[in-house]
Known about the structure:
The chain is mainly α. It has helices spanning 3-18, 22-31, 36-53, 59-79, 85-108, 120-133, 135-144, 159-176, 180-201, 204-230. It folds into 2 domains: 3-108, no CATH class; 115-230, no CATH class. Helix 1 runs antiparallel to helix 5 (85-108) and helix 7 runs antiparallel to helix 10 (204-230). The longest helix is centred in the C-terminal third of the chain and has 27 residues, at 204-230. Pfam families: DUF3307 (PF11750). Keywords: Membrane, Transmembrane, Transmembrane helix. The chain crosses the membrane at residues 38-55, 61-79, 86-108, 120-148, 169-189, 209-231.
Amino acid sequence: MEIVLLKLLLAHVLGDFFLQPNSWVAEKEKKKLKSDKLYLHIAIHILLIFLIFLSLNSWKIALVVGLFHGIIDVIKLLFQKEKTKRIWFFVDQFLHIVVIVSCWNYFYQPAISLNFLENAQFWLFLLGALFLISPAAIFIRVIIAKWIPSKASSSLQDAGKFIGILERLLIYLFVCTHHFEAVGFLLAAKSIFRFGDLKEAHDIKLTEYVLIGTLLSFGIALIVAMTVMNINL
Length: 233
């Protein structure tokens, strides 16, 4: 990745997260186009590019990125509702990144290589990751379905599902990058947070159910990761 793209991304991170207080965000959402903070925020993004590049020759890309940043922010402010704030946050960030990458490509015309798409190992790694996200969850659910506790759960909706996906992907990443010690740390951390609550609940069946699900999740992730690592294509 070229240093120019890294500098543009750095300017974005600084401007959108470090140099934009929550009070500014609240004022923009309240006053929208009438908010002074909106235009100050755009100006900061433009100024950051100048400062990071330390060159006046970057004025074209600074103005273009700043202009599109403002347009995207305005669209977000005008169309987002209280219930859609989370969605618009990710849409907003995605569009900012698209603009940055597009400007980098247009103004600097870097040599972008997609040779990794011809690498069979890349597709194998992707296949393993996708398997751990959904099929593995379905297999685990089918296996332990007959042991589902009758007691109603007070946990967050789909929390267990997402915890399982994250833990399998983390194990997959740790093993594929040869950080096996991190797998033990992850298991210990989950044991502290999860089984501490189960102990307080005094429910043996629920504890066993969670333990079976956890061991299955960890086991499948380890098997998939080890398989991917030992297949030479």
